[in-house]
């Protein structure tokens, strides 16, 4: 993932949004989906992804299921019921943040405006 704190601060919301849309995913699948959606602009490293997944799991927002696929164990993550509710909250919060930032970035400050 890019080193910007803006991206790092959004990682858990990105994970939760993908799981909301795809029901369940494994780690590598999440990294590849982000890369595909962003056309390579965002690359989530394993070093960033797995601590975030484990943190979300520890908070009770995700649960993991292990399955054997091609003679290998694969850990799938999915949102819990509380994770689904929290995803809605975080996405609404992110949308508000983006809208406010767009307003600030695109505004022409009035020099006569006094505080």
Automatic annotation (TrEMBL):
Domain Transcription regulator PadR N-terminal: 15-86
PANTHER family on file: PADR-FAMILY TRANSCRIPTIONAL REGULATOR, TRANSCRIPTIONAL REGULATOR RV3488
UniProt name for this protein: PadR family transcriptional regulator
Organism: Flavobacterium arcticum
